[in-house]
Each structure stands twice: as structure tokens, then as C-alpha cells.
Amino acid sequence: MSGKYVTETAPANRAGIARAASILRAGGLVAVPTETVYGLAARADSAPAVEKIYHAKGRPDFNPLIVHVRDADQAARYATLSGTAARIAGTWWPGPLTLVLPRRTDAGLAPAVSAGLPTVAMRVPSHPIMRALLAECDFPLAAPSANRSGFISPTTAAHVLASLDGKIDLVLDAGACPAGVESTILAIREDGSWEELRPGPFDLTALRGLPATGAPADPAGAPVEAPGQLASHYAPGKPVRLNSQEPTSEEFMIGFGSIPGDVSLSAAGDLAEAAARLYSCLHDAARSDKPRIAVAPVPGDGIGIAINDRLRRAAA
Ligand code: AMP
Ligand code: MG
């Protein structure tokens, strides 16, 4: 793909991490591995750098970004972590859990990070390469998924290049992302209650005992607060049929468990493996010469909730 940049790929070793940090420091764009998916990072304290993320992704400017930091202390420089938030952060960071928190008025973050909201989404990732990169950066990193807006999320460097080659400075290649679906997002309300805005790898049953606002947010009913939850997202560019037992001759089949396919999310019926392979299978289906995609049923418990959430949006 042609573009303004020649996109480099660097292995995730000491030299690659140093190169990534220096590009980011200068306001550039680097695709970075995390435990969830590859992120498209820029320094969150620079308006021109953050603007480049929206431009490279073709992301609508009403869709805010997640800010990645080293630890809860660094998060507290940008957001207010009181009560419930501090307890959740102290217990479950680092990990695939994003907290939407009141944004500090003296945060010094690029306004576009929050897309006009009074809140900011913060995460402390656990991926060792992302942690090593954050340790080298004396600034926070805004990073949405490293794909063209609305398209399938990337879990390998090749997936990133498939939609952003020529549009970013560097891909830091650390192989496949272990969890494979985007972080769980929780909004922490002023009264200390919380609400799930997006299901993900973090198991919410861990939060039992903490006050909650009750039912999880209805994704269709909360487009203003969590615009990334738009009904159509993660789209492979072809019709997707869910809960299929068998493909038609026109369909590329994504199997699960005992239901076979051209590829399988997990032949063993393992939901963690299915999450890790979800976007890879969708990328394979998008690239195939079949005009349609069928997907076997996936059980809706544990990480299966997040898998089915992404599949529904891919099919919408
Ligand atoms: P992505 O980084 O592509 O996974 O998208 C980030 C997700 O975080 C989107 O669903 C956003 O809507 C959500 N998000 C980021 N910041 C906020 C915020 N301040 N309030 C609510 N949702 C947010
Ligand atoms: Mg995304």
C-alpha cells in the first residue's frame, strides 16, 4: 500500500524497543504488541501525534482512545483514581482491563484522546515488550487497535501491515498476541459503582463483592459513551453468518470444536485458544476467494462473551 511513510518492521529486542521509543518521542506512530491486540501508539501528550493516529486509521474523531501507562501512579497523573478505581487498579493492573475515569483538568493530554468527554480511558498493559517500551518512554501512549477503522483487529505484525503499511513509521514485531481480543472496559462512576462498556479477556466475576450499577451497558444504548461499541465493527468486508453448522459452497467456514472448517478457532473447543485465534481466522476468511463467511457456534461463557460480542459486530 502506498502512503506518506516507509513502514519499518523491527524485532522486539532491545534495539527495536529503543528505536520505537525514539520514534514515539519525536511524535511518530509505532504499532506495538500488547497482551490483547497490536496497538497503534503515539505520545498521548502531543496533539499533533494523536492526530496522526486518527488520520492513519481513518478513525472518526468522536471515538476516544485508550491511554497506556506503566502503573497506577502514572495513571493518577492523568485521571482521578478514587475508592473503587484505586482498589481495582491496585488488584488487577497490569492486565487486559481498561478503566474509564474522570480526567484531571491538569492532565496535559491531547484533547482528542478523550474526544470531548470529561473522562479518559486508562490501561496498564502486562505484555513484557509493551512494558519495556513504556519504561523507556517518559510520556503516556495513546493506542487504539492498529488497523483501519472498522476493520478486523490485528494480532500479528502481518495483520498490522495488511491495513497500515505506508501509513505508520514502525511495527514492533513480537509475534502473536496471547489474549487476542481487546481489553475489557469498565467505566467507574463518581459514586464508586462500575459498569462494563466492553467485554474482554478480564473475567468480571473477579469483581463480585464490589458495588455495581447492575446490568452491563446495552451496547446499542451507549454509543455516545463508548463509540467503539458501534454495532458494526471488526468487519471483514464480506457477509458473515453466525451459528452455522455447515457452510454453503460460497462460504469460507470458521469451525469450532467438533464443527470443522477451512480454519478452526479451536479444534479442541478451548475458548482461550479461540479468542487468541479469532482475528487470525477472520483475516484468513477476508483474504480467501470465497465471497461469504460462516462461523460455527461458540459457547457464551467466560471469554466466550467477548468472542461472541466481536463476532456479532463483524456480522452486523
Ligand atoms: P480501541 O482502542 O480501538 O479498542 O477502542 C478504544 C475503545 O475505548 C473504544 O470502544 C472507545 O469508545 C473506548 N473508550 C476510550 N475512551 C473512552 C472514554 N473516555 N469513555 C468511554 N469509552 C472510551
Ligand atoms: Mg479497534
Automatic annotation (TrEMBL):
Single GO BP term: regulation of translational fidelity
Chain residues that bind L-threonine: 36, 68, 123, 143, 183
Compartments (UniProt record): Cytoplasm
Location of the YrdC-like domain: 14-202
The keyword ATP-binding belongs to this UniProt entry's keyword annotation: yes
Binding site for ATP: 59, 63, 119, 145, 153, 198, 234
Sorted UniProt keywords: ATP-binding, Cytoplasm, Nucleotide-binding, Nucleotidyltransferase, Transferase, tRNA processing
GO molecular function terms noted in the UniProt entry: ATP binding; double-stranded RNA binding; L-threonylcarbamoyladenylate synthase; tRNA binding
Cell division in keyword set: no
Residues passing through the membrane, by range: none
Family the entry assigns: Belongs to the SUA5 family.
PANTHER family recorded: SUA5, THREONYLCARBAMOYL-AMP SYNTHASE
Protein name (database record): Threonylcarbamoyl-AMP synthase
Organism per entry: Pelagerythrobacter marensis
